[in-house]
Structure formats: structure tokens, C-alpha cells
Design goal:
There is one protein chain. The chain has 335 residues and is mainly α. The protein is 74% helix and 5% strand.
């Protein structure tokens, strides 16, 4: 479970003439039918374990194979780490609530979940845009690739992404702290989703909505514009290659990234359109499973199945103990 990092003095919501301490919210989850709870528990536990195991394999394969110590795989391992953290922000709490047959999340836990959920969701978006820039340099400026995408720049890009999202998430979390709530409010979701929590406030939430929508447009349009610009340049560069084999080779280096970007933005668009069409909180919570759970689970499969270098790295990592242990045993037996 996540632990709160907010000062306890900030966790009191003040109303005019009335001091109120908000203790709990109720997460209604995906279904209130008791018969469906074991199925939901088993399904989400399986997806969570696959997500953690798949992304962890990519991190271990990249870190253990010197052939994969390149900017592209450095960003990929960071994306895998973020995906593990992203699902760990919400799914363990959901599984715990189902197992204990409780729907309670504390006020502190809800604010903390909002913070980390926004942090890792935004990092996913920013890292995908950074990876698009990496592919742009690799395809359009191959001779200068290693000098441009040097370790210093790669580290700075990842660090800058973290700084931006830490400030972005902190802004929204502190904005929620200024709101007043009635006790034991029900959230029709399996997580503390920012917009739904803001709508439940009993005090004026106009400023929260304004900041939320402006920040969402800024964080949504900015990275997507960067990705779109990079791929416009990449397509123009690929069209300038004379041989069909050269075009295929250049395109294949960014095929996995295109698949992940398409899945990411199409999923978000689908969630937004379904929510706008149905105006149903339950429908929104069901469709949000796609980008909260399914997308982080599919990313390792997309990269490992479409990438020969990564598949070789995974094989080397898998065979490494098989190779090393016989050698170690022979050394131990020798006088």
C-alpha cells in the first residue's frame, strides 16, 4: 500500500465556521455484485503479475546485456519501470479491498494515490515523446546519433520528465487539499481519479476544474505534438531512401514505438469518447482499465515480439544461469 507523504496539518479541510476532518472515501470498484468479486480479483491479479514480470524482465535484460546499453533501450527500461509503478499505484489497493471485502480508502491514501497516478501516467506520455525524438535522431541523423544522444543528454531528458511530472502532480494534489468534502463519499471507480474526486467536492471547485483542464490540454498536446513532429520528419526521411530494403530497415527500428504510441493515445481517446457518450461513471471506470492495466501489460510483449535485439537479450538473460552454474561447479571441483 502507498504511504502518505503529505504533512498531517494539511489533511484537514476547513469550512467556514466548521472544522471537518475527512477520514474515508468509498471506492465502489468495477462491480458491486459479490459473485463477480472472485473473478475480478483473479483477473486483475493475473494481469498485475504479468505486467510486473514482463516489465521486470525487460529491465533485467537491458541492464545485463552490454549490447542493449544504447539510448533506445535506456528509455525503454525507464518506461518499463514507470509501467510497474503505474499499475502498483492502483491495483494492489483494489485487490486488497476485494480480499478484505472493504471499499474504504483513507483521505490521505486517496490524495497520495492521485499524486502517484498522475505522476506515472504523465511520465508514460513524456517518455514516449522522448523515445520518438530518439528515433528521429537515429533515422534522420544516423551518423551523429551517438554524439547527439549521449549519456548526459539521455539522463537529462529522463530527469526533466520526472521534474515536470513531480511538479504537475503536486499542483493537482495540493489543489484537491483546498476542497471540502462530506464524510464517506462514494467514488464510482476502483481508484481515486482526479476529476471524479473534484466533482464530489462540497465547496467551489471552479478553480480546480480550470487548472485541471488547462493542465490536461498542455500535457496532452505538448508531448503528442512532439511525437507527431518527430514522425513527420521520420516519414519524410524514409521516403527519401532509394532502396526498399533500406526503407523497411529504417521503419522497423520504430515499429514497436509506433505500436505503443498508437495503443496509448487510441486508448485514451476511447476512454474519453466513451465517457462523453454515456455520461456513466461506471462505464468510465470499466474503459479506464484499458490504459490503467491492459496497456502497461501489453508494452513488454509489443517490444519483445517486434524487436530482434531485445529478444536476443532476453534469451541471453534466460540462458545466463544455465551457462554460469556448470562453470562455477567445475571451478569448485577443481583442486
Amino acid at each position: 500500500m502507498l504511504f502518505s507523504f503529505f504533512p498531517s496539518s494539511l489533511l484537514y479541510i476547513m469550512e467556514p465556521g466548521n472544522n471537518t476532518q475527512i477520514e474515508n472515501f468509498l471506492l465502489l470498484g468495477l462491480s458491486e455484485d459479490p459473485e463477480q468479486q472472485p473473478l475480478i480479483f483473479g483477473l486483475f491479479l493475473s494481469m498485475y503479475l504479468i505486467t510486473v514480470f514482463g516489465n521486470l524482465l525487460i529491465i533485467l535484460a537491458v541492464s545485463s546485456d552490454s549490447h542493449l546499453h544504447t539510448p533506445m533501450y535506456f528509455f525503454l527500461s525507464n518506461l518499463s519501470f514507470v509501467d510497474i509503478c503505474f499499475t502498483s499505484t492502483t491495483i494492489p489497493k483494489m485487490l486488497w479491498n476485494i480480499q478484505t471485502q472493504k471499499k474504504v480508502i483513507t483521505y490521505e491514501g486517496c490524495i497520495t494515490q492521485i499524486y502517484f497516478y498522475l505522476l506515472f501516467a504523465g511520465l508514460d506520455d513524456l517518455l514516449l515523446s522522448v523515445m520518438a525524438y530518439d528515433r528521429f535522431v537515429a533515422i534522420c541523423h544516423p551518423l551523429h546519433y551517438m554524439s547527439v544522444m549521449n549519456p548526459g543528454l539521455c539522463g537529462c531528458l529522463v530527469l526533466l520528465s520526472w521534474i515536470i511530472m513531480v511538479m504537475y502532480s503536486l499542483l493537482h494534489s495540493l489543489m484537491v487539499l483546498r476542497l471540502s468534502f462530506c464524510p464517506d463519499l462514494e467514488i464510482p471507480h476502483f481508484l481515486c481519479e482526479l476529476s471524479q474526486v473534484v466533482q464530489l467536492a462540497s465547496s467551489d471547485n471552479f478553480l480546480n476544474n480550470l487548472v485541471m483542464y488547462l493542465a490536461a490540454v498542455l500535457m496532452g498536446v505538448g508531448p503528442f505534438a512532439g511525437i507527431l513532429y518527430s514522425y513527420c520528419k521520420i516519414v519524410a526521411c524514409i521516403l527519401g531512401i532509394s532502396s526498399a530494403q533500406g526503407k523497411y530497415k529504417a521503419f522497423s527500428t520504430c515499429g514497436s514505438h509506433i505500436s505503443v504510441v498508437s495503443l496509448f493515445y487510441c486508448t485514451l481517446l476511447g476512454v474519453y469518447l466513451s465517457s462523453a457518450a454515456t455520461h456513466s461513471s461506471h462505464s468510465s471506470s470499466v474503459t479506464s482499465v484499458m490504459y490503467t492495466v491492459v496497456m502497461p501489460m501489453l508494452n513488454p510483449f509489443i517490444y519483445s515480439l517486434r524487436n530482434k535485439d531485445l529478444k536476443r537479450g532476453l534469451k541471453r538473460f534466460y540462458l545466463m544461469p544455465c551457462v554460469k552454474w556448470p562453470i562455477i561447479l567445475e571451478v569448485m571441483k577443481s583442486p
